[in-house]
Design brief:
With about 625 residues, the protein is an alpha/beta fold. It contains 19 helices and 33 strands. The strands form ten sheets. It has a seven-stranded mixed beta sheet. It has a five-stranded parallel beta sheet with strand order 6-5-7-10-11, sandwiched between helices. A hairpin with a 5-residue loop joins strand 30 and strand 31. The chain is globular, with a radius of gyration of 24 Å.
Length: about 625
């Protein structure tokens, strides 16, 4: 990528981006941070979506999930409900620049509330109802929202979970002017009691059709805040990452429309929650006129086959998931290609962690020998990818085909020199349209600069270790702040996971490289077994032999621990960095916010292990 101005101008033209005022220049300057895209234009994200309300027969949204009757939302119904919700917001005083926030699952209400919010020029942010009041407050309170849209209950894992207490506490802490409640499972508030001084209303009233109301989309500047996404928040208050209308529109059109070849003939299903940036991609599929499928509930209830049943029943053409869910399906012995009619499925998309060669083999044997498994890697920071698949490029197990169109991505050494066939830092050398326009509450841009540009001046450093091969593909090795460094040799944790999690008896693995205060280095591995009656000694010997032979002796851990489960963030990422710091002696409360962990009680094991290390000072693996 050497001419971003020409490329992104062509994307704007090719997809016929709707703008009430055309842009004066594509890119004002190439310096980062500070690059400005499509100056002079006036547009609204919602216009790009609702242009597809042209009488087409395919639904806009298909709603499925635990405890929910399947529902189709037609394009005309989508427009009607977005129009009504926007009118409700205007009626309660929401103006351009205000914030509307959600405490919602991945369902139609979240998409409609987002589009209605953006239509009036307000800014959207959301988190899922699996967060408790403190974790949700850490994110949403920063925005001082005018309106809160929240669900009263959720069905997850076969259990109806009442969220009214959390929603009431959230309303008290955020102090919005209006609270709109989405009722689930018959669990509702008595609105006459008015749990806070805010005005309370029900979702059904906020989207009630009124034929006298027409949709008016607020035309905004290209960098007008579209939505705020949040960093993981594992070690403190999450950063609010702000993206603008134009940058997201063109980036998602290119990524979805060109790389994924998504269009109005497709049914798109990516299992996600509203906590993860993939929810923004689920909504983004509407930009191309595709049918997007939302799923509310557990991906493993009543069994791990549930998502594959959705793929079959909805005749999904593009199915997105995570390596963890694919691994769970493989570990359960599923053979989706034989057990389901997947004749509509054209590709499987995967992100969230590096994809092992064993998962490629499983897809080939258990799904279809000619089913492409397309891996991509990016981040909440750009609400898109840096590297991914592309029609016409080969798919090699364990590798990602190449950079996304319009992205100048390279692997650099510590001195800022590009490298091939060696592990280096993932950097982006030219601006991308979907880079954040700012961080929330960062008036002078210091936190934004320090997050990405402190290492290499004027160059985005993302914090991932990658190898850029001479063939042009990429291999992602994991976060550079959790990379293992043994005797001066960098080791990607993903390289170890690829082997460990391909062994029959292992369900999941975690490896940490821990620099100890006394100058020693420890490399412990934590293993979750599929069958707890398995011979642990044989399994360890098998794993150590394979690591020694397939990578190198330095990849073999010092010690092995068998654990009930591995703790993750609620977006499914292993807690490598916080757990490493705990083992180095840090207090768990200083390095980890319990509200962002899927199972906080699992952290206790690492706290106890750290105490053992400080007392005995020698490996105590089991």
């Amino acid at each position: 990528m050497t001419e971003p101005e020409k490329f992104w101008a062509e994307i704007w033209k090719y997809f016929d981006v709707i703008a009430s005022v055309p842009f004066d220049s594509v890119l004002d300057r190439r310096e980062m941070p500070g690059a400005r895209w499509f100056s002079g234009a006036r547009l609204n994200y919602v216009d790009q979506v609702l242009r597809h309300d042209d009488g087409r027969s395919n639904p806009a949204i298909v709603v499925v999930g635990e405890g929910r009757a399947r529902r189709e939302v037609s394009w005309s119904q989508l427009k009607s409900e977005v129009t009504a919700f926007a009118a409700t917001l205007r009626a309660v005083g929401v103006v351009p620049g205000d914030r509307v926030v959600g405490y919602l699952p991945n369902a139609d209400e979240a998409i409609i509330a987002f589009l209605g919010t953006v239509a009036v020029g307000a800014t959207w942010a959301c988190c899922g109802p699996d967060y408790g009041a403190s974790a949700a407050t850490d994110r949403l309170q920063q925005l001082t929202p005018t309106v809160l849209v929240g669900v009263t209950a959720v069905m997850f894992g076969g259990e109806l979970r009442d969220r009214r207490e959390v929603l009431s506490e959230l309303a008290e802490r955020l102090a919005p002017d209006v609270v709109i409640t989405v009722v689930r499972g018959g669990i509702d508030f008595d609105h006459s009691t008015r749990p806070t001084s805010a005005r309370w209303m029900r979702w059904a009233d906020s989207v009630r059709d009124d034929s006298a109301v027409t949709l008016e989309t607020q035309q905004v500047e290209p960098e007008h805040p579209l939505w705020v996404l949040f960093s993981s928040g594992t070690t403190g208050v999450p950063k609010g990452i702000v993206h603008g209308h134009a940058g997201v529109v063109v980036t998602h059109l290119a990524a979805l429309g060109l790389h994924q070849d998504l269009d109005e003939t497709d049914v798109f299903f990516w299992y996600t929650t509203t906590n993860w940036m993939l929810w923004n991609i689920v909504a983004g599929a509407l930009l191309l006129g595709a049918t997007t499928v939302t799923y509310e509930g557990s991906p493993a209830y009543p069994d791990i086959d549930v998502l594959w049943r959705v793929v079959e029943q909805e005749q999904v053409t593009q199915f997105g998931t995570s390596p963890g869910l694919l691994q769970a399906a493989a570990s359960a012995g599923l053979v989706p290609g034989s057990e389901h009619d997947l004749s509509s499925l054209e590709k499987i998309l995967v992100t969230g962690a590096p994809v092992s060669q064993s998962l490629h083999r499983w897809v080939s044997s258990a799904v279809s020998t000619d089913m492409p498994l397309l891996s991509t890697s990016g981040g909440t920071d750009v609400v898109s990818s840096f590297v991914g698949s592309s029609p016409g490029l080969p798919v090699r197990p364990g590798e990602i085909s190449g950079p996304l169109l319009g992205v100048a991505v390279e692997a650099w050494d510590d001195a800022g020199r590009p490298m091939r066939d060696q592990v280096g830092e993932l950097v982006v050398t030219l601006p991308m349209p979907s880079m954040p326009v700012m961080f929330w509450n960062d008036p002078n841009g210091t936190r934004y600069h320090d997050a990405y540009f402190a290492t290499y001046s004027g160059v985005w450093r993302h914090g991932d270790w990658i190898t850029h091969t001479r063939g042009g593909s990429f291999i992602v090795h994991g976060r550079s702040d959790s990379t293992l460094n043994r005797n001066g040799v960098r080791i990607g944790s993903a390289d170890i996971y690829q082997i460990a999690e391909s062994i029959d008896g292992i369900a999941e693995a975690l490896v940490l490289g821990v620099e100890m205060p006394d100058g020693t280095y420890r490399l412990p591995m934590f293993l979750v077994l599929k069958d707890h009656s398995a011979d642990r000694s044989d399994l360890i010997n098998d794993l150590a032999d394979r690591l020694r032979e397939e990578v190198s002796p330095r990849h073999v851990p010092d010690e092995f621990h068998f654990v009930e489960a591995i703790p993750h963030t609620k977006t499914g990422k292993k807690l490598e960095v916080p757990l490493k710091r705990i083992l180095q002696g840090a207090s768990a409360s200083d390095v980890l916010s319990p509200g962002v962990v899927d199972r906080p009680e699992l952290v206790d094991f690492y706290v106890e292990l750290a105490g053992t290390w400080s007392t005995h000072g020698s490996p105590a693996g089991c």
